[in-house]
Fold these 2 entries.
Entry 1:
Amino acid sequence: MRKEDFPIFKTSVYGLPLVYLDSAATAQKPSVVIDKMTNFYQSHYGTVHRAIYKLSKEATFQYEETRSLVRAFLNADKNEEIIFTRGTTEAINLVAYSFGKAFIQPGDEILISEMEHHSNIVPWQLLVEDRGARLKVIPFDERGVLDLKAFEKLLSSKTKLVAVTHISNVLGTINPIKEIAKMAHAVNAKILVDGAQSAPHMKIDVQDLDVDFYLFSGHKIYGPTGIGVLYGKEALLNAMPPYQGGGDMIETVTFEKTTYNVLPLKFEAGTPMIAEVIGLGAAIRYLQNIGLEAIYTHEQELLNYATKKLKEINGIHILGNADKKGAILTFTLEKIHPLDLATFLDLQGISMRTGHLCAQPVMRHFGISSAIRVSFGLYNTKEEIDYFIECLKKAVEKMLWI
Ligand code: 7TS
């Protein structure tokens, strides 16, 4: 699907065609994103929001146009609810800091799940330590499915926030966010959804999901690095104090007292990532032209095909066997170290990730310290999966023989 849109696939690795199976870490960039940013730097570059000359007015228009694109991409109600951040990690830290300052008291509880990326664990640990609150963890079962009964038991009037991932970056599990949101709201808790792994792969509707916060990274949706999005319900964002102080986020400054700008600029201190925002806009346009439904269908086909083929390999253990999964396959192989395998496959031109995958608690759940992960993007093909399986079989044969 549209592989020709991505110039990186014209390059080779060790003289071999590049087979890129690490889109869960970061996605490759289509020409429309690269060209848009180059053109902006070459012919249109200027600062935003603060000057009246033509370049600045045009840059501001494109910057704010992207906010409208993101609003539509997430089906948020208002542009004020879209905050640009450096990425998912910064968006979570922003909420942990600002929501925490406004709403978390000693004795309050924050619930996260056992399948979170470190980015959706550590900011909450920092917060609860600071506020004298408590962090509780929703477990998952042997298939990698969240235990909603245990979740229900953990919920109480002390719960102030539930922070869960939409799709696990290790298990691939697609969590039932609508149901989780309903359960959280029933005890008056807010819900934050880590959309780093869902925004690139499926249609998101924050109003239908009824989530209070949803965040994602530009670089995983075929856009540039250094840019991400925080969606938050307007009333909540209005009730939260600024995360950082500086230019753009103020209304008036005196040495005695500063008043803050309105949303969304209240949370965008300093000269922002202008070219990155504009690049993100190009990525969203690109995705919308293809259609998220078409991307989801294509990647589900790849996932099912690869799962079937992988299961034929002796000694393989797939981590995460939920009924609803995103395009992520993590596994271990008996008697073969993930690093050896990754090194062998790299020499065949295959890029994939090994290690703890930034989710050490998930590794601990399975009693391992590292695993192998392949993940798919819209540009991957069945032929690439065939090649990967062929190389994997060769590797297993060679390594077991040694
Ligand atoms: N949350 C999830 C579920 C993720 O998968 C990642 C990145 C993040 C948060 C952090 O995103 P960032 O853009 O702020 O870094 N996941 C991965 C991965 O699986 N391999 O490398 C990065």
Note: The mean pLDDT is 97.
Entry 2:
Amino acid sequence: MRLLVVEDEARLAHALRRGLAADGFTVEVAHDGPAGLEQARYGDFDAVVLDVMLPRLSGYDVVRTLRSEENWVPVLMLSAKDGEQDQADGLDYGADDYLTKPFSYVVLLARLRALLRRAPLPRPPVLVAGDVTLDPASRRVTVAERPVTLTPREFGLLEFLLRHSGRVVTRTEVLDHVWDMAAEVNPNVVEVYVGYLRRKLGRNLVETVRGVGYRLEP
Ligand code: CA
């Protein structure tokens, strides 16, 4: 089995290469994000071990780019972060599994073997409400299986509402999560964009809860 290890810490990269080679894998190493992406695209690997914090392009960006290109090579992400949010981010972007540094080599090996046994490759989760689907990895939205083109802001708003479907989100929450520089944005802009979404989707999925915010029915 051919593995790509994308890790900028030279000692860890060297230790992984040596250990995995001793366990019978063929191992290539890349030391930054762009090199890792390039090798993952063209190297025909069975799995990729991908650090999150990498020079020039993060592991998140590498895996998201691969998935947007419909490359489903199994990816095990490594991170020094241990917040739940970071794990969720990695998995949302299309990683298959996640290990927090420091990790034991034995655990890494077991997780890798589990990934390699899985077939067919699982696609990243697609968010669904009624006949509307949103794929965070490929950034595609469909209504009744028909593709719909959204602006990045509309896409961000729909993704946020889908991830919180069934509960009321306040306008402030929407602003904080979907708009950069939220403090400088007129809060009414949210209502305007909800209107755009309703029109483009041709569905009244998003309910306005007067004086509170919005709710998307799952
Ligand atoms: Ca790193």
Note: The pocket of calcium ion is lined by residues 8-9, 51, 53-54 (CB under 6 Å).
